[in-house]
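Q: I'm writing up a methods section and want to include an example of the input and output format. Could you take the sequence below and give the corresponding predicted structure tokens, formatted cleanly so I can copy it straight into the document?
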Amino acid sequence: MNGKQKIAVILLAMGLIVSALVGCEASDEFAPKQRTQIEKYLASKGVEFSLVGDSVFVYVAGNKLADAGMLPAEPQTIAKGDSLVFNFEAYTFASTPANKPYYTNKKWLMDKFYPTFDSSYWDFSPRRIKVGTGAILKGLEEALMGRMEGDSVAVFLTSNNGYGDHALGNVDKNTALMWVLNVEQIKKN
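A: Here is the clean output for your methods example:
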């Protein structure tokens, strides 16, 4: 692994931790324009979304358990204090999502978009967090509340709910984001 790859791995691996430290600290200066861009994009796709707060947009793309006829009669939903296991893709968002992720734990995406990247040092395991501890961006935590095991969720965040006025790796400061999260397991507190 060359020096640039080592730096990229370190920065990207720290993304979830750093995001918890800097998220929601930035001014709302960019949020109105970013909200408009996100709303236009979602409207162009004809999808139904919910709004968390005034600038976190949530689109539930489906549920793999429901699609397989395996959804429990009374499915559990995510609440503060629950332990959560998920897979993810993270993209920057201008008027549309970027064509490749800046951060993911899906090996096939890394292989597809970064074929020369030495992924032997990359952690592809599902992420495990306790909801409400600040382990991920606050906007992501808020978007996950009430979601079910098996849900595939696209979350659009204005920069004030992302990394704010801090740059992180390949993500410029004041950048809107789109995260795609696949909820694999919920363990109630």
